[in-house]
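Q: I have 373 residues here and want to know how they pack in 3D. Can you give me a structure?
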Amino acid sequence: MSELNNNNILSAASHFDIEGDIMHIERFGSGHINDTYRVKTAVRSYLFQRINDQIFADVAGLMENTRVVLHHLKHKLAHLGREKVEKSTLTLIPTDEGKWYYQDENDCFWRMFILLEGTKSYDIVETEAQAYAGGKAFGEFQKQLSDLDPSKLVEILPNFHNIDFRIGNLRNAIKDNVAGRVGEVQDILHYILQREEQMRTILWMGNNGDLPLRITHNDTKFNNVLLDEHDRVQCVIDLDTVMPGYVAYDFGDAIRTIINSAAEDEPDTAKIILNIPLFRAYAQGYMSEACVFLTEKEMTSLLHGVFLLPFMQAVRFLTDYLNGNTYYKIHYPTHNLVRTRAQLKLVQEMELHQEELTAILEESVQVRKTVKK
């Protein structure tokens, strides 16, 4: 995307229906996809973003998804009162023309939300209480949207969690071998292709009608949960990837990001071990909310999601490495290869602890039976 100056930003912000005159605009947050700013007026502050239309090509569809989801969430929370609702979910600000985004003369796309003051987020889960809060937040998010028809939402990133699509891309990368790297990763390819059938389980269950299509978040990192000053869940944010999917995808991606004791690109795979207490805490928090709407087969699918998401991320990293590092940002030539090995080590650790993980999930499911009695 093109570079911005203060005049560009101020001009775009002036097209939104905000309270008070703009006093100050500054960069905000640490996101890597959209350009984000804090717009301050004498009345309140707003979160202002330039949407990355290179990644989200269907901006109209993206913003319609956001509008539909937020409208539904606010309807569900209406009994709490306006002030509480505004703190518990995002609030879109329309343009002066009543639209939900603004396209400027440079074909940049902008949107605005009320900024949720007094909140915080964490990039890394450090305590069981935080893991429980994260599970509770995403479980409640799915629960609130469980009665919203998925067909009302556009698939913003087609095939995002489709393992058939990801394996297909990997096979094409192997065939083309544009960077001449296939020979050096034979051990990794053997490991991946040996497991590809079992990693299709969720897809098969969905295709067979065993899993209902739900509205899912699809980016369940812990820093997409805002907490209040007491570390209590306040709001789930970053709705760009909210679209139809299977609940196991959200559960698996959250576990992928909290259970790993090391960084996603840790070169020393011996440091990659599982933080089982965080897994237990997240599962219990998630089930405390999701238990009221999940089917038995959806609960069965959760562990498959735990294995699938790091596996699929490894496939994506490896595909990019074989293609010459054209998608992910890297800091050194073998960065994607290091990421691949780290994700596969996580899968291996999960395989070693599969019985324990299964027992913990079954234990967490008992919450469902307790709630329904």
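Q: Anything worth noting?
A: The longest strand covers residues 35-41. The mean pLDDT is 92.
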